[in-house]
Predict the 3D structure of the following.
Amino acid sequence: MIKKCLFPAAGYGTRFLPATKVIPKEMLPIVDKPLIQYGVEEAMDAGIREIAIVTGRGKRALEDHFDINYELEAQLRGTSKESMLAGIRSIINTCSFSYTRQTEMKGLGHAVLTGETLIGHEDPFAIVLADDLCFNGDHGVLAQMAEVHARHGCTVVAVEEVPLSEIHKYGVIAGEEIEPGVYRVDAMVEKPAAEVAPSNLAVIGRYIITPDIFDILRETTPGAGGEIQLTDALLQQAKQGRVIAYKFEGRRFDCGSVEGFVQATNFMYHEKMDGADRRKNLR
């Protein structure tokens, strides 16, 4: 049911300066793949084949990554390294990619609204924030959320429990648990102080959203940080009973922080090495 996935990718990545002075943060590698490729692969796992990316100045590397490099492929053809391009080549052959630029950084809500021309108004769509790296080897987070959306037919946001000492960094939900790990949302607050947070369930960078969100975002005034917050627009849907929060299965790393990036690198390295050992033992 979900055909398109939007990747807001116009931010400056200032927490990783000076590396992100010329390299988009979405292109920073976790072991041997850039962050955004993990996100695209997760979207593909959910059956999505149309990838829309909101970029900004200095982000051409994103477009180049999801394109064929004829010179490099010619150099590697017939060598032992040719197989190293198989994964990205499969993505290029399977998915279509479209891009638009966000000329001003006015918050996540504004970035999503910028992607309206790529998404359209007909169908619900997914959103992935690439610096939230989610891992579930058997069943990706977006695929899990697509199943929840199929049952409930409304907007779905991914949530996880976070310590109250960290709650001020997130959008936070409150609601009634209607199934194990599934909540009907009735309140959402962007970056609340711990003492007023409605719960410890924080929204992370995975969404499936109905297209009426664009009309709501157009009417949304700047909120926390003086930015147009997606959380504020989702709250308008929640007031009509049209937002579900899903506590996903899997592990999530905040790769927008240096600490989370290092944790993700170590975790994915061991996953890669363990997988190589398993394949070796099967021979």
Summary: The longest strand covers residues 171-179.
